[in-house]
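job 3f2a | input accepted
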Amino acid sequence: MDFSAIVMLIVIITILLLYFYIKNYSYWKLNKINGPKPFPFIGTIMQIFIGKLSIGNYTKKIYDQYPDERMVGVYAGTKKVLILRDLELIRDVMIKDFSSFVDRGLGYHDKHEPLSANVGLVDEDRWRSLRRQLTPVFSSMKLKKMFNLLIGCTDPLIKNLMSVDGHVVDMRAVMERYAIDVIGVCAFGLKIDALLDDDNLFYKMGRRFFNPTLKNFIRLRLKSYAPFLYKFIGGWFTDWELQKFFITLTRDNIEYRKKFNENRNDFIDLLMALKENSQDFYDTAITDSVLAAQLFIFFVAGYETSASTISNCLFELALNSEIQDKLRDEINCELISRDGNITYDGIETMEYLDKVVCETLRKYPPVNFTLRRSTKSYKFYGTNLTIPKGTIIWIPIAGIHRNSEYYPNPDVFDPERFKTEEINNRPQMSYLPFGAGPRNCLGLRFAKMEVKVALIKLIQRFKVDVCNETDVNYTIDEKLFLLGPLNGIRLKVTKL
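job 3f2a | predicted structure (496 res):
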């Protein structure tokens, strides 16, 4: 190839790249939607791509930067993404016009990740079938049957903290192990003892999924920003040991229970009954792998988020001793009225506890953004914008929860924000810790029950205080997908 041909090839490639750039990155501007300027191939998410900002904090940053916009256009790689600020538009997407936004947009790849074929990730048709059949699993009656299992998980927790009376403890790490014990008993019917066993395998598997390793970093970014490429090479980045661990655990557990006709009133029992009494999911047999995928999402959703909520609540109670004392008074009064016993119905009557938990989820939503993908062309009400099928929607939960228009002095921890009259005065969709609409968090009632039981046991027996090791500024670990503190939550724990 002579020199002139090489130059011509370079010119052609340059023109194609410019065309590609202009074609892909002019969409929002042509539709008169404001947003940050994109960078070739990376889009507007350079800080996410290099790990300097989590997606949740990125959406909050954009939310705060464009206070006068109802929606903001950004680009995740070459994908068009719309960040919604207007609560009415958010309501339309999540509730009113849900049929146009059934998919979460995260994508599942059961070829590379069998455990991704769960109710949280599957597409529209499979989701409808799974959701319909799994919803009864989380009924009040079923949760009551699990309640005693949950109470039993607090005994190792109290024993663990009794042994460190008067010392500084990383409550985030302790609550992660408590949450593992809860999931082990209530989901898998196994006594895990993660609180008492530092080398626990179940705990290690949980950390493997959430740890910000290079392999996880690449996998998540390929899935999110290069899904076409992930279809071909995703298997290279799959943690097959993790996948096989949960599938084998589920299969062996089911076989054991069938052989010995054992019933434990836990999640596996409920799924086994579901398998026996239901039709196939969307022309796909309900295999042990499918059941394992549902157990896995229960594990993922219930482990990190519950540990986060409990430890974040303890952090705020340590900073606000008067709130901690008021909560303890309510707990003691409730226990006295029920002969010292914690009951399912008793927890429901503890109004201040509920306010404290709600305010914790307001200030520290574990899942600090959520997303949807349009399943058809859609025109936003009251606008001139029509988006094509496949457009990704990001909803900035952290930004909404810290908006002073809805929550005056949003950085202040104030449980009284959740008095009935205060709630009624706020617009719908201004509080989204569990999402909203038909595709909200399926296990939200179980999660709140788990959090409340732990708080009751802890605040009844211990006082938590900040110390010189506490990161009172709560520095966020930007490498995590979910909200998490960079420096843990180190508090002084004193037996009462």
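job 3f2a | The mean pLDDT is 86.
job 3f2a | closed
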